[in-house]
Structure formats: C-alpha cells, structure tokens
Design a protein that fits this description.
About 40% of the residues lie in helices and about 20% in strands. The chain is an alpha/beta fold.
Length: about 160
C-alpha cells in the first residue's frame, strides 16, 4: 500500500506490477487521486481498470521477449510537481530512457493527445533532475482492444 506523500498513484518494477492484484493497483490509484482532492468518477475507474488490464497483458509479453524488462520502473498517475494535478497515465523507466504513455479510449490519436504526451515527456526530461540523462520517448498509446486497436510495449 502506498502512502499519499508519494508523487504517484502506483510505482514499482514491471515484475511488482504484475505481481500486484488489479484491485490493489486500482485502490492505490483511487486513494492517491482522492488525496489530491480531485473528483473520481465511474469513467475514471473504468479507464484505470481497462488500462491496467491492457498494460498487464503487454508487460507479460514484453518480459517473455526481454526478461530484463521485469526490472524496468512503472509509474502510474505521476503527479508533475507544481503542475496542479497534471498526471501522465504511465511513465516507464528502462534505465536508459523515459517513456510516457497516455491511454485514450478511442481508436486514434488526436493532435491534442500527441501534444499532451510531448509536453509530459518534455516536462519530465527538463524539470526533473533524475531524468536529465535519460533518452525520452514520446509514446501515445490507445486503450481499447474493444475498438480494435492496442499498443505494444516495444521500448527495448
């Protein structure tokens, strides 16, 4: 269980993410966002459920292909400092790169989605000292295998 002085809803290694139950991850996300005094609606809870389910599937497949990826960092709902609640859905730290993923419940990325991911990647790379030496990747991932599209974690 996380404490809410942490800047993220959930964080750990990819292996820890797979070992944690979906319910625990969702409860941690809910507790974190509630502690930020932000509203959480049913659509947000559904989005977390869907994105965690999809991410777990992709993480398992990635670890099968690249076992070293089980040690990569996964951060869900990371609150950018001094940004009034701006939170990338997912940040993946590979040890040499920082990858930002935004889940969108539609089968295509709009320009605003790409701009959002680019801004998150820029802010993390420029304003967080621990990120200065990492390569940054701007990734836009669309949730919704129910819409016929999925993202692939091919960040190695």
């Amino acid at each position: 269980m996380i404490t809410y002085d942490n800047p993220a809803g959930w964080f750990g290694t990819m292996k820890a993410f797979l070992d944690a139950s979906e319910g625990v991850i969702r409860d941690d996300l809910r507790g974190f966002v509630s502690a930020l005094v932000l509203p959480i609606g049913e659509s947000q809870l559904n989005a977390w459920t869907d994105s965690v389910r999809i991410l777990r599937t992709e993480c398992r497949q990635l670890i099968e292909r690249h076992p070293e990826s089980q040690l990569w960092g996964i951060i869900l709902e990371y609150e950018l400092l001094r940004e009034r609640g701006r939170r990338p859905d997912l940040v993946i730290l590979t040890g040499c790169s920082l990858n930002v993923v935004e889940f969108k419940g539609r089968p295509y990325a709009e320009q605003a989605d790409l701009d959002q991911v680019a801004a998150y990647a820029r802010d993390l790379a420029e304003y967080h000292s621990g990120s200065h030496n990492l390569n940054r990747s701007r990734k836009n991932a669309l949730t919704g295998d129910w819409f016929g599209c999925r993202f692939r974690l091919s960040l190695a």
